[in-house]
Amino acid sequence: MIDSHCHLADEAFVTDLAEVIERARGAGLTHALCVLAAGNHAEADQAGVARTLWPGIRTAVGVHPHQAGHFEAHEADAASVVKAQIARDPAARAVGEIGLDYHYDFAPRTTQRVVFRAQLKLAREAGLPVVIHSREAEEDTIEILEEECAILSAKSGGSLRGVLHCFTGTAWMASQALKLGLHISFAGIVTFPKAAELREIARLVPEDRLLCETDSPYLAPTPFRGKRNEPAWVIRVLEELATLRGTGPGDLQRRIIDNFAALFRP
User: Fold this and answer.
1) For residue 30, what are the domain limits?
2) Which of its termini does the chain have fewer beta carbons within 10 Å around, N or C?
3) How many domains does the structure of the chain reveal?
4) 65-76, pLDDT tens digit by residue?
5) What is the strand order of the sheet 2-6 is part of?
6) 42 within 8 A of 26, measured Cβ to Cβ
7) What is the CATH number for 173?
C-alpha cells in the first residue's frame, strides 16, 4: 500500500519518527509521498533522515498558500525556491502542495493566485506532477488549472498531471478536475460520520484516477479521530473507499498503487 500525501517531516514526528515508519512498513506500506514546505531546512533535514529509515519515501516540494504571503511583490521567487530545492533532492517527484486557501486567508488572495500560477508554470516546464490544495476556492482553482492546461496543450499537446489532495470539495469541482485529467485523493475525512456527500463523490471517482492518503499528522480517520495521524492508518481510508465502491480492499489497493506509480513515477 502507499500513502500518497503525508507530512512525515513535520515537527509532530521528531521524537518518534523511527517508530512511526516502522508501523507504516509493518502495515504493508511500500511508499509514501512526504510533502515539504519549500525553504524549510528543518523539514528537508528530517525528510533526509526519514529516507534513510524508509527508502520508499518520495517527496513533493512547494509553497503552500498559507506561506504565499512571504513572496508578496516578488511572487516569481516562490517558484525559484521550489526549483532549487527539487534540484537538490533526488527523491523529489512533484511540485506541491500548492494552491489556494480562502478559508484562512493567511495570504492575500491575489498573491496566492500569482504564487500558484508561478509554481504551475514550473511544474509544466519541468514535466512534474502537482499536488493541489484547494479550500473554499473552487472556481478560482479550476479556472487557473484550466488556463495552465490550455497553455500546455497548445505548446506540446500534453496535459497537466496532478492530484487534488485531501479532497473535500463539491461534485462540480471533482467533475471539472477529472475533465482536466487530474487524480483525486481522499483522506480520513471520508470516514467521518457527517461526510455523506464526500463519500458519494468518492464512490463515483473513476478507478484509474483514485488515490488515498493520510495528510498526517492531521485528520486521523475513525476510529483514531482526535489522535495524531500517521501513515499506517491509510489502511483505514482504503477500507472505507473499498466499502463505498463495493470492492475488495486488495483489489482497490492494487489499483491505487498503480495510480500512484503512474502519477509520481517513484
Assistant:
1) 2-264
2) C
3) 1
4) 999 999 999 999
5) 2-6, 31-37, 57-62, 92-101, 130-135, 162-164, 183-186, 210-212
6) no
7) 3.20.20.140
